[in-house]
Design brief:
This protein is α+β, with helices and mostly antiparallel strands and 147 residues long. A two-stranded antiparallel ribbon has the order 1-2. It is elongated and about 75 Å long. The relative contact order is 0.21.
């Protein structure tokens, strides 16, 4: 793996975890918002690392060129999914969002779960920030050696 590829992996991970942290912050901010549905961030592998994907890579690399396949790795942000659990029904007949029976649906956000997920996203962001810093220092050392 080259230093440029390591930098790209770190950059993609920083973007993915920053978006993930932003989604958890929005969930926490909407804990008391009626009819708000919790959003769950989805992270995907940057490459197809399934057995089928590995065999396809080997078909072109090993059998065609004679080298072992190299998977770059990394993570990308894959969007969001809505939490299927329903919030509690609250009787508020004068509320603008109330149904015909006078009930509104409370938010399905559990603040403790989103706080824990936000802490995990923050730690993953910090780890990838350290990776980018180490890659940058290695690149600087490599250019000093090349002089």
């Amino acid at each position: 793996m080259s230093l440029v590829e390591a930098g790209k992996i770190g950059r993609n991970a920083l973007t993915a975890h920053a978006l993930r942290l932003d989604i958890h912050a929005k969930n926490i901010a909407n804990v008391d918002t009626p009819n708000y549905v919790r959003r769950i961030p989805i992270l995907n592998a940057a490459e197809d690392i399934s057995f089928h994907g590995l065999l396809n890579t080997m078909k072109t690399d090993v059998f065609g060129v004679g080298t072992l396949p190299y998977t770059q790795g990394g993570v990308v942000f894959g969007g969001c999914a809505e939490d299927p659990t329903l919030g509690d029904k609250i009787y508020r007949p004068g509320h603008p969002d109330a149904d015909a029976n006078g009930y509104i649906r409370a938010s399905n956000v559990n603040a403790m779960v989103d706080m824990a997920d936000a802490i995990l996203a923050q730690r993953a962001y910090e780890a990838n920030l350290a990776l980018v810093g180490i890659t940058r220092s290695m690149t600087q050392k490599a250019t000093e050696i090349g002089r």
